[in-house]
Amino acid sequence: MKIAVIGTGGVGGYFGGKIARAGFDVTFLARGEQLKAMKSNGLTVKSILGDFHIDPVKATGHLSNIGESDLVILAVKAWQIKEISAELKTIMHENSVILPLQNGVLAVEELKELINRKNIISGLCRIISKIESPGVINHFGVTPTVLFGEIDNSKTTRIQKIKEIFDASGIHSEIPDDINSELWKKFIAICVSGLLAVTKTTYGELRKLKETRQMMTDLLNEIYHLSQKMGIRIEPGFVDKSVSFIDTFPYDSTSSLTRDVWEGKPSEIEYQNGTVVRLGQKYGIDTPINRFVYNCILPMEIKAREKLQVSR
Description:
about 20% strand; about 300 residues; 2 domains; 13 helices; about 45% helix; Rossmann fold; N-(1-d-carboxylethyl)-l-norvaline Dehydrogenase, domain 2; alpha/beta
């Protein structure tokens, strides 16, 4: 099976690296200094579960150079899905499968705008990782996990084959009974990232202070109430479980959205707290904490995107 990993950041670099290390035919799409370093020195993954290095590694800066792929793992930022969707067709054949691992709950719907539904499955990952330096990925929190499945939750042969690839690569993966429910469970938890950005805190600092811990809990509860109004199947008490899970994160850790905002880069704010605000308005659920977080970050997001357009 030929596998394409689109985006070689903390997510694509780690999971793609594990798959390539296991001997599968993997080609990475990377850019700039990351691509240059991978071509010169391979890919290094530092991990709390054990470091590894791959050299040589197949990598390119042009998606069309990858060629037809059986499995396409999308590991770009959520806001990049729309701009890359049309180009994905150049590496697909009739039975290609696209597995999006973006934050948020919109990836599948955005992909379906240009790509046949039959070629798309749904997925998410759990990992705290980042590019430490060009060619070096650092995984420093949470057991790396991939959850995935057919959009309609049917148990198909192709889903099982992908599970076998993850198993052979030493990647913990699950095929849940309801993938949409799992997407929302992750969505609820990751929206704390915007609160970290606004308060300029790490997970440890945010949860330690009584006032910001309460804001975090209120933010999570808003999204949980929204999910229930939308008919998403999530068990009672999930917010408490989410808080307990966040309590296990390394004290000094942050999220990719948080770091992007702090560094003046475009972020996934529209796909996290922004999505909560819009869906809240649509379904009549008030989301004041999420709205506050979104509105605070929005001016910085506009500046970051204007800067990106100029640089292009």
